[in-house]
Amino acid sequence: MRLQSSEKAGLGVHGLGAQWRVPVLARLLALAVVAPALAGCESLGSLWGPKEDPLLDEPADRMYNEGLYLLNVKKDTKGAAKRFEEGDRQHPYSEWARKSLLMSAYAYDEAGA
């Protein structure tokens, strides 16, 4: 009986032999253990694209006044609404947050959204 090239290499009739199954399973197991740990690494974040820069914590009155400037001078109603919302998000219990909520609603109303 003549052996095929895969049988000569010790691979058997069905492809991979038993001697190859253990290392492959060990590698898959190691990959399954290491992959979740690497997925959480901040240093590998550049591989999945840039992240948005978080807005710095600015004073509430400054954010409110920037929203008013965008609304009244620049006529950028959606930008103003977002600025007001950011002021409310960063300073939720301030007096400026209440004013920002009202102005955000007004800016969205002016935008027709």
Sum up the structure in keywords.
mainly alpha, elongated, 113 residues
Short description:
The chain has 5 helices and no strands.
Write up this protein.
This protein has 113 residues and is mainly α. It has five helices and no strands. It has helices at 5-8, 18-39, 60-72, 77-90, 95-111. The N and C termini lie far apart (80 Å). The model has no long low-confidence stretch (mean pLDDT 79).
Explain the layout of strands and helices.
Blueprint: H1 5-8, H2 18-39, H3 60-72, H4 77-90, H5 95-111
Helix pairs in contact: 3-4, 3-5, 4-5
Question: What series of H and E elements makes up the topology?
Answer: HHHHH
Q: End-to-end distance, in Å?
A: 80 Å
Overall body shape? elongated
Oligomer: single chain
Average pLDDT taken over every residue:
79
